[in-house]
Amino acid sequence: MATSTILWGGFILLVVIMLAVDLGMNRKSHRVSFKEALGWSILWVGLALAFNVGIYFVLGQQKALEFLTGYLIEKSLSVDNLFVFIMIFTVFGVRGELQARVLKWGILGALIMRVVFIFLGAELLERFQWLFYIFGAVLIYTASKMAFGASEEMDPDKNLMVRLARKVLPMTRKIRGDWFFTRRLGLWVASPLFMVLLVVESSDLVFALDSIPAIFAITLDPFIVLTSNVFAIMGLRALYFLLAEVMGMFAYLKYGISFILAFVGIKMILIMLGVHIPIAISLGVIVLSLVVAMGLSLLANRMGYANRVSGEIP
């Protein structure tokens, strides 16, 4: 009990401190440079790995493997969400410095949603184990849709939260400044930037419904599920600016991520059939899937570049 309390206390203290530092250093909207994004990404990954080492020494190898596997699952799945963020910002015409502001508050909202979903999901799975079949099937369906479905165009007018907000909130026609709300003629009015935040939050809500069941195939321990999710999400903003310029280089990454989703979905169903895939094997499958997908993407880019060069030679 004391060990659990120490870990929970250390985790909460670390997140509060890092949130305070992150929010304090990013109070003013500014364009996040590649160097800054790289620094924050290294910091967040380093903190996650250091926390994983702490779990290893306090809770043992099994829990450490569960955390690392869960962290890699959530981190890899979050990359797919970054493509959605890019689409949202492109549709709304949001500049780089304003993207950082939207992501900052969007990720805070995502953290709150994750806490609710994780504890609710863990409780439901403990009480109704047949939900493993449902969650597994949902993950397999999502994987097939991601791999073989056509990409959909982002249409803000079809977003339920945006439609509801437009009905109840007066809104300016253009984004002016970095505010979400301001007073005009004695009335509170919303900026289109607030609509962007709503779309980001709603997309993360859908993303959470896919990603959280995935980690329940690894463990039902709320501490491992929550901490691995939080560490993956906290570094999402830095990862966005780190990868935004090079995402086009990883054309096959979505297939690697979809394979991971399908694997985890099958693992959830197998659990109900009495077949348990060891955590070490799950971790190996996830890492190998990502490495192969990125390797094939880089190889395809290199071959495409070589073909273009050779095509230019008379």
Average pLDDT, rounded to a whole number, is 77
Biggest sheet strand order reads 1-2
Number of self-contained structural domains: 1
**Rg of Cα set:** 21 Å
Helix and strand pattern? HHHHHHEEHHHHH
Protein name: Membrane protein, TerC family
Main location: membrane
GO biological process, one term: cellular response to pH
Family: Belongs to the TerC family.
Structure overview:
The protein has one domain. The model is unreliable at 305-314 (pLDDT under 50). It is mainly alpha-helical and 314 residues long. The chain is globular. The chain contains 11 helices and 2 strands. The termini are far apart. It has helices spanning 2-25, 34-59, 61-92, 96-127, 131-148, 160-168, 192-216, 222-234, 236-243, 253-272, 279-312, and strands at 181-184, 187-190. Helix 3 packs antiparallel against helix 7 (192-216). Strand 1 (181-184) and strand 2 (187-190) form a beta hairpin. A two-stranded antiparallel sheet has the order 1-2.
Quickly list its features.
single chain, 314 residues, mainly alpha, two-stranded antiparallel sheet, disordered C terminus, Integral_membrane_TerC, transmembrane helix
Quick structural summary:
With 314 residues, the protein is mainly alpha-helical. Helices cover 77% and strands 3% of the residues.
Layout of strands and helices, then pairs:
Elements: H1 2-25, H2 34-59, H3 61-92, H4 96-127, H5 131-148, H6 160-168, E1 181-184, E2 187-190, H7 192-216, H8 222-234, H9 236-243, H10 253-272, H11 279-312
Antiparallel strand pairs: 1-2
